[in-house]
Amino acid sequence: MEKVGGKPPQSRLCFLATLCAMFWVLIFYFHFFVIANEPASAGADTAAGAAASIARAELPLPEPERVSDPAVPLAPPALVSEPPPTTATVAKVEEEEKPTAVVHQEAAPRDYAFQRALKTAENKSDPCGGRYIYVHELPPRFNDDMLRECERLSLWTNMCKFMSNDGLGPPLGNEEGVFSNTGWYATNQFMVDVIFRNRMKQYECLTKDSSIAAAVFVPFYAGFDVARYLWGHNISTRDAASLDLIDWLRKRPEWNVMGGRDHFLVGGRIAWDFRRLTDEESDWGNKLLFMPAAKNMSMLVVESSPWNANDFAIPYPTYFHPAKDADVLLWQDRMRSLERPWLFSFAGAPRPDDPKSIRSQLIDQCRTSSVCKLLECDLGESKCHSPSAIMNMFQSSLFCLQPQGDSYTRRSAFDSMLAGCIPVFFHPGSAYVQYTWHLPKNYTRYSVFIPEDGVRKGNVSIEDRLKSIHPDMVKKTREEVISLIPRVIYADPRSKLETLKDAFDVSVEAIISKVTQLRRDIIEDHEDKDFVEENSWKYDLLEEGQRTIGPHEWDPFFSKPKDKGGDSTNPSTNAAKNSWKNEQRGHN
């Protein structure tokens, strides 16, 4: 380059300046007019989305909320993996307007967490397939601690003596020859909590893997819990353990599989003790069975509510707890061979404070009959609380009168069946809508039904009604009763019957069947959306495969729930209280 006076020529400077200006003009034109008017590219969107995802991934995840309030709605059954959502692909239109074409893709079938448990039943080489039970390991405050404080479980009875022999109580002597030589115990009628749990310990299909369990057992002593606080304690104390239990269960992964619908527990008392409707301090019992979370569980009680779907009746414990099949078979043969000189018998006390009770009429008819044996259970009669006196009377009778107790049911019904005595019921709530797992739904096979209204009005003679039954029918019905004995007794928890099924076995099978059917209904979306809980007793009477209910001959007995347990401020609450008074009378 030539130098002129140390400076570049003027023309070259102008050329360079012009060239630089034109370059920046082109840059600005391309940016503001070309790029700004074009749609954003897919690649740019993808990059932006990826950047946002990365930013979100780097944020700390919140801790999952622990729900302890049982009033919070329960979650639906857990899925192994959420299915892909249904998608729609919209066809693009060209120049002219065309209708949008939508193509629906079917949703993939859901894979529920409980399906592994269902599949175990398909393994024919596994004798426990479809029968596994998972047992929660509850803190001892829910069970064992109550037994350690057994003297506090009843105001009038020291329950400690009944805790011996795994809940069977002390052995009974056989000085009068009424019992067999082994298997007989002075069992308290409210000991099902302990007996059932100890029987469960011997169950052959227990598992530590809850994912293969057909059902989940909660070994909470619900009956003992409510018993210790019924008198002289406020509702906060009465409800505390139940609320604590629900809170503990809801934090467990096993609960989340079905929201507790595969869980079951035992309360060895009548359902009304667990159905307090209000929070008035004067109201009876606790509210365990009304807690939303507990409603999903199945509770086994000695008397259920005809109008509720989450409790199921199981037999009261009797005095007989055999250790092997031979003990049962020998007893059944003995009951078949007995001479029964009395046409009918009744063991009980009148209920003068209950205008609906027919006990006074039954006592009057028995007193005036030459073929009736009466064992009056008033305050001065101790034989009514003697197992040998009661069983001896039942063994000598063809028919045993079983009116309502302080509530619908009474232990005496099972004691009489154990003695081979045909029970005579006066209300369908005393057995027919209660023990549908353990007794035939066709009640005429094992019992006689005489509606109580006719007895109350004096229009029915018990003696004439029973004498009208043909001897062949009596023999057939008694044989049915004797054949049912294994199903209504609890075997010794320290052993197991070889082939016969006792009340525990029948109950567990029924729970497994219930949960299994529910799981299948969920998978197939066949849950009964029209289920009416107030008609629960009707559903319990349906045969297998039936789902539709309609008018029933027993509608008049159950048309007004408030008559017996629908309202905790009415006579049903008094019935529950009276059952405690009767317990006091029986052990003083």
TrEMBL record:
Cellular localisation: Golgi apparatus membrane
The UniProt record lists the keyword Transmembrane helix: yes
Keyword terms of this UniProt record: Glycosyltransferase, Golgi apparatus, Membrane, Signal-anchor, Transferase, Transmembrane, Transmembrane helix
Endpoints of the signal sequence: none
Biased composition (Basic and acidic residues): 550-566
Transmembrane stretches, start-end: 12-32
Keyword Transferase in record: yes
Main location: Golgi
Extent of Polar residues compositional bias: 567-579
Example GO molecular function: glycosyltransferase activity
Record GO cellular component, one term: Golgi membrane
Exostosin GT47 domain boundaries: 128-465
Region (Disordered): 550-588
Record-linked InterPro entries: Exostosin, Exostosin_GT47
Membrane-related topology note: Single-pass type II membrane protein
UniProt similarity note: Belongs to the glycosyltransferase 47 family.
Protein name: Exostosin GT47 domain-containing protein
Organism in which the protein naturally occurs: Oryza meridionalis
Classification lineage: Eukaryota, Viridiplantae, Streptophyta, Embryophyta, Tracheophyta
